[in-house]
Amino acid sequence: MIDNTIVISTPPHVKSRRTTRGIMGDVCIALAPAAIAGIVFFGYMAFVLELVAVASCVATEFCYYFIANGGFAKKCANAGKVCKKWLKQFDLTSVVTGLILALIIPATVNWYEVIIGGIFAIAIVKMFFGGTGKNLVNPAAAARVFMFISFSLTVYGKVIFGPILDPASEGAILSDATNLSGYLLHGQGSALSNLDLFLGTGVRGCIGETCKAAILLGYVYLCIRKVIKWWQPLMFIAVFGLCAVLFTGFCYDTYKFDISLFLPSILSGGVLFAAVFMFTDYVTSPRGLYGQICYYIVGAVLLALLRYLTKIEVASFVILIMNILVPLMDKYLIRKPFGYVKTKAEKEGK
After folding, report:
1. Number of other CB atoms surrounding residue 225 within 10 Å
2. If we measure between CA atoms, which residue out of 150, 139, 142 comes closest to residue 112?
3. C-alpha distances in angstroms, 21 versus 53, 87, 114?
4. Cβ neighbours of residue 88 under 8 Å, at least 6 residues apart?
5. Global pTM?
6. pLDDT one-digit tens code per residue, 95-121
7. Which of 271, 294, 292 is nearest to 282 (CA)?
8. Where do the structural domains in the chain lie, given as residue ranges?
9. Who contacts 263 (Cβ-Cβ below 8 Å, separation ≥6)?
């Protein structure tokens, strides 16, 4: 007779004090330097957009949960219980989504567009598919692409990326989406040094993507807290940088490999931010080691190729493409258990 007090479950049996809320809290702390740097560079509008993005994502999650769990049933008789239940399960994932969304858009975006993007990220991409851990693609990246398609004039912008060659020019825009047209195209460099690109001084770009020092500070924190694996962003960045240099060489009449373009390539746009905070998303990245290696290498090559062809920052598009391929990687790129031997049925199946 089986004792009903014993819970039987399948292995592996892992005991840990870490929770989703704790991990997301660490991610929020890691994002804080980039968020603060964005406010320093772009002013109060960056702060407003960050608050609006986070508030819209959290509010959308609450409203969706409240409706789905019968908060309005019987003249809202269970409203209090539903609210307490939501607070108990609130894991900060919507806060992270809202903060990332705010940091990958320029400070010139209208506040109501950010609200629409936040609603799309949580209601459509996350909650519609079952909530935390069930989303097929990265909510922030999907919202960024949605906003790009819906509000291309403000989200994408009309200015070129990179150096502010004439900051005193009339109507100069200091914050806008990354446009790489003309930048590093012919190896002519820019008015900004690699140090300027690293610190974010005088760089046009999205709120949280300009100051690479702040992003790396968050990366170090995540590694120390063991939220991400240290080698994953580094592999992505290294492969991307090399591919960017290789592709840029085709801009010459005769092919030229110029390794000096490596640093400007990885320090421009949102490459570092995407590598640290978006490609490493637990839910939308492969589980196995082989799948993860393929994920980062293919993603880096694809990003370098599309940036070379389009001359704009397409990290969010690449993330969505790679997210869609993750189920295939999980199915076919898996590590065999130690001592595994194929059965006769498996051999005959081939």
Report:
1. 16
2. 150
3. 19, 12, 24
4. none
5. 0.84
6. 999 999 999 999 989 999 999 999 999
7. 292
8. 20-154, 160-332
9. 194, 197, 241
